[in-house]
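Task 17 of the worksheet. Students: predict the tertiary structure of the chain below and write it out as structure tokens. Keep your answer in the requested format; marks are given for formatting as well as content.
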Amino acid sequence: MECVYGREIKTLHDPFFETAEIAMLSLSVAGVPGEFYVDAFPFLKHLPSWFPGAGFRKQAAEWARYVHSLRTDTFASLKEKMERGAARPCIAKAMLEQASHDGDSAVEIIQDATGIAFGAGVDTGIAAALIFFLAMALYPDAQQTAQAELDAIVGRNRLPDFDDQPNLPYINALCKEVLRWQNVVPLSVAHATSKDDVYEGFFIPKGSVVVPNVWAVTHDPEAYSEPQKFMPGHVIPALQSDVVGIEAAT
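Model answer:
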């Protein structure tokens, strides 16, 4: 919230935080394929909310209110602070200042972009960080190798920055392996085909719900040896072992 909108959250009862929490909970529940009958039987969306079995319509309307509020209210609060000269530095403020002469359409794009950045980045970012900590606890040798690479390339007198990234192949591989090893969203997010398609002989009509099985793709034994094991070598072929020497990594 502070990074995107410049709003410091001092209590869990902050109204913007509570709205964001409910909005993200609703998205996480609604995003699970098959959570509601309407996912499998789209015609149910035409039933009135009072009809037995159509309670999902009331739930969806309530959740939509929180999602809309997350997108608009926090953004409006920031714009009001900017007009008073009281806005703190943040991503949305910087984008608005750069687009100050681009009209309302640019403002709407920024509103949507920052809403997605906050909404989609919070839960997934936390989940990825927790997976990283789990991997480091279970595979300390990988952590030691990553630290050795940092010490050799960056040293211990400063933090690494993006200019160092090309020179840190092991850490790059380790970060990607974190996302492969334990997927943040194993079944991704359900999508729908925008037009008729054919895949390997199978006809997929327009509007079909497609659930990408990310877990199966990232744990295919034909693509990854020992897919259940955390191995940065899965990502960079040159790193074929669980832990390699710093000379090989760099």
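Marker's comment: The longest helix spans residues 104-138. The CA atoms of residues 20 and 151 lie 39 Å apart.
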